[in-house]
Amino acid sequence: MEFQEVLQKRRSIRSYKPDAVPAEAVAKIRTAVELAPTACNLQPFKVFFVTDKAVKEKICRIYKATWLASAPAIAVVAGNYDECWKRLEGDPIADVDCAIVMEHITLSAADCGLGTCWICAFPRAEMDAALGLNKPWKSVAITPVGYADHQPKARPGKDAAELFEVI
Ligand SMILES: Cc1cc2nc3c(=O)[nH]c(=O)nc-3n(C[C@H](O)[C@H](O)[C@H](O)COP(=O)(O)O)c2cc1C
């Protein structure tokens, strides 16, 4: 798929068909994860591509949305807040690194014709416990991955001039 088309195709999908994510698509998503840039190339992240029913159910008990449960897979991006590069003021950059990783996942999934939806509104400590993550690791974002069972409505947005200015 042409890159601009991938950008247009990626939308938040909140209903999924039960069909499994094909192995070739999982491999493409894994490559996209490997290619994600991180500060100082420290790669302070881990992606869990969850297809196991029991683990998926645990996640769905934490982020309670029926549409999440409808997805055949859930990708979780976790960051290492010690191992990551620190800003000049000392703040860890892990959130930024993990956001780039998640965006690589959502865009490569879109390139494979798959839907995703960024999710951050979950209780982090509960998600960490479900995945066996301990300090300095923390979950950052999750996304369902699967074939869309609905067509999202046109997305309202701010005026481009408000968001982007050539100066
Ligand atoms: C950092 C981030 C966190 C988000 N968290 C959630 C979430 O917890 N639940 C949800 O349903 N959507 C979540 N979204 C999806 C946004 O609502 C969605 O991206 C936005 O409305 C634009 O729609 P689009 O993705 O279809 O272009 C999140 C998106 C981002 C980028």
Describe this entry's structure for a reader.
There is one protein chain. The relative contact order is 0.23. It contains 7 helices and 4 strands; from the N terminus they run ααβααβαβαβα. It has one domain: NADH Oxidase (3-Layer(aba) Sandwich). Helix 2 runs antiparallel to helix 5. Strands 1-2-4-3 form a 4-stranded antiparallel sheet, sandwiched between helices. It starts with a helix and ends with a helix. The protein is an alpha+beta fold. Flavin mononucleotide binds next to loops. The site of flavin mononucleotide has 9 residues, from loops.
- So, CATH architecture? 3-Layer(aba) Sandwich
Taking the sheet with the most strands, its summary is: 4 strands, antiparallel
CATH topology category name: NADH Oxidase
Please give the domain count: 1
Shape: globular
> Over the alpha carbons, how many angstroms does the gyration radius reach?
16 Å
Uncertain regions spanning at least 5 consecutive residues: none
Oligomer: single chain
Q: Would you list the SSEs in sequence order as H and E?
A: HHEHHEHEHEH
Question: Can you give keywords for this protein?
Answer:
7 helices, NADH Oxidase, alpha+beta, 167 residues, binds flavin mononucleotide, globular
Sum this structure up briefly.
By secondary structure, this protein is an alpha+beta fold. It is 37% helix and 16% strand.
Q: Helices and strands in order, then pairings?
A:
Elements (H helix, E strand, L loop, with lengths): L2 H7 L13 H12 L10 E6 L2 H10 L3 H4 L3 E8 L13 H18 L3 E2 L7 H7 L6 E10 L13 H4 L4
The protein binds flavin mononucleotide.
